[in-house]
Amino acid sequence: MSERQWEGKPPSAVLISGGSGFIGSHLVRRLLEIGSKVICIDNLLTGRRKNVLELDESERFTFLEADVCNPIEPGLLEGVEWVLHLASPASPGKSPVSYMSLPFETLAAGSKGTWNMLEAARIADARFLLASTSEVYGDPEVNPQPESYWGNVNPVGPRSVYDEAKRFGEALAMAYHREKGLDVKIARIFNTYGPRMRPDDGRVVSNMVVQAIRGEPLTVYGDGSQTRSFCYIDDMVEGLLRLASSEHIGPMNLGSAEEFTVLELAELVREMVPEAGGIHFAPLPPDDPKQRRPDIALAKRVLGWSPRVRLREGLSKTIAWYRQEIGEGLSG
Ligand code: NAD
Ligand code: UDP
């Protein structure tokens, strides 16, 4: 694995928001592995303390239960070279932790939270990375989506609290770059999955894997013909590290270029989890994007990055983790 891992100079200290969430908890581990000091700010709104609890043993790890919507204590910024802003609810699903259930918190994390993290980067003279999203493209009319596509977003629909907060965050980050010379990277993250995404998160991979392990039918919204491209978490962490350490300014897509229909995903999960039930079709939520696949030419060219883990392999690791997590044994 080492020849494909980023081997640049590790930042001496990193401030990360949302570090006890799904993606954040993997990124924090990788940063500690490469020798950085990590200060994690998380209010545990959608993340879980247990995701990073064992990391307390490292003297290079600091966990602060705090809301990024409050200004960042300047005392935390000593030696910080990278500021990574991941804090935000992230799931559109039917769940108490989805951004649909947390509209004001989502708008605040994307606006006030991004502003505070940008200020922290400016004060620390650090580089800044925003965890943005493929949702800035809305329900895209071009496929795959390059960074130059401006998107097709409903600004007042139920997904707008997330989409517009991220679009605002991108605009704010670029204003900091133009007006204050801040070194700004915007990762447009496409559907990412893997261990430590909470079982009740509401997103498609966690929903289907948990349903399958419990022997329940898998819920497919609509007729399942809508597409997504699923990136395994290890590949995403590698892409984020490479982007953070690069000289690139502005947005960059990170995600898998392999596109599947939701029905194909359901069939694959059923094949891999023998006790899974059948398929239950449920209504398609409003404004659910019909297609989504990143154009990753920019990441390939600038970072030398593309995902390595195929869906079946990533799902296999994910299924093993969920079996343990939901306490149903490791058989099957
Ligand atoms: P997650 O919900 O597991 O993690 C988000 C973390 O942010 C949680 O730990 C949560 O407690 C924390 N948080 C939320 N609001 C906060 C606040 N105001 N102050 C401090 N902490 C706060 O979600 P994730 O999937 O790990 O997503 C991480 C980031 O990546 C998000 O910004 C999300 O928008 C972005 N993203 C993720 C995906 C994906 O497929 N997982 C896709 C696109 C973008
Ligand atoms: N979806 C589904 N069943 C579920 C959860 C989601 O069919 O239990 C569908 C959803 O309608 C969407 C796709 O799977 O078309 C991906 O949904 P997810 O919530 O993971 O994220 P999105 O890509 O929509 O942001």
Number of helices: 8
Separation of the first and last Cα atoms:
27 Å
Show unreliable segments.
Answer: none
What string, H for helix and E for strand, traces the elements in order? EHEEEHEHEEHEEEHEEHEHH
Task: Work out the helicity level.
Answer: 25-40%
From the helix content, strand content and strand pairing, which structural class follows?
alpha/beta
Major beta sheet, specifics? 7 strands, parallel
Total strands: 13
Bound molecules: nicotinamide-adenine-dinucleotide, uridine-5'-diphosphate
List the strand order in the largest sheet. 3-2-1-4-5-6-11
Measured by DSSP, the beta-strand proportion falls in 15-25%
Mean pLDDT metric: 96
Gyration radius over CA = 19 Å
Shape: globular
Explain how this protein is built:
The chain has 332 residues and is of the alpha/beta class. Helix content is 33%, strand content 17%. The chain has helices at 22-33, 103-124, 160-180, 204-213, 233-245, 262-272, 297-303, 311-325, and strands at 13-17, 37-42, 61-65, 80-85, 127-133, 184-189, 192-193, 218-221, 227-229, 231-232, 250-254, 259-261, 279-282. The two termini are 27 Å apart. The mean pLDDT is 96. It binds nicotinamide-adenine-dinucleotide and uridine-5'-diphosphate. Uridine-5'-diphosphate (UDP) is lined by residues 92-93, 191, 203-204, 207, 219-221, 226, 228, 262, 285, 288.
